[in-house]
Design goal:
This protein is about 50% helix and about 15% strand. It has about 230 residues and is an alpha+beta fold. One of its GO terms (molecular function) is protein tyrosine kinase activity.
Length: about 230
Amino acid sequence: MKFMDEKLINFDEIVYLLKKKIWILILITGAISCLGGYKASIMTTSYQATAKIYVGRGNNLMDYYSQNEIQYYNEFMNTFNEIIRVDDFLNETLKKYKINKSSWEVKNSLGFSASENTPIFTVTYNTSDMEGAEQVLTAICEEFNEQAKTIIPDAKPRIIDSTKVYPIVPNKKKLMLMYFGVGVIFSLGLIFFIDYLDDTIKSNSRLEKVLPVPVLGNIPKHEKGFKGGRE
């Protein structure tokens, strides 16, 4: 009969357990840390191109817009967000501006966010190609202006913040520390799990929990442990 539920793990037992199973901690933590180091070594700097577009009814950015108007413009932006990801639209835009990229390379890297109180929205494009980032986003924004004029007749769309490209440098140290932490936690969890499944009695205190009588003497360390529940 197993007595796992009756185990009492004190500080000394934990220290003894960790010393005995230290090889698991070193092996697994080392392996996972090496994996993190490899991933960090192959990470490269990426770039994010950002532009802001105004689609209001007038040239004055400070014009007042009612909530209904803001909702109307936001719905248009959401519609355009879907249209701009259509393969045919992207392929035509890329071809028009002589950009040697396919639609599937571009659409999954595009991002949109609309302002809550003004008809202004931000377009972003992420890529590992610095020059391509600016070229692609500028082309899409220019094409947007043309499309917006036909979809919203009274709108006067224009780019109010031209395309700017920012580098995104990966935090390699943070990644490696994260992998190291995962390795330590996983190793400790495995060590305690293995110990939980182990019924071997390694101390007098545990033996006294199984036997109804006091234990005299010590359990020799060279002997194999007594299995709880065996006769």
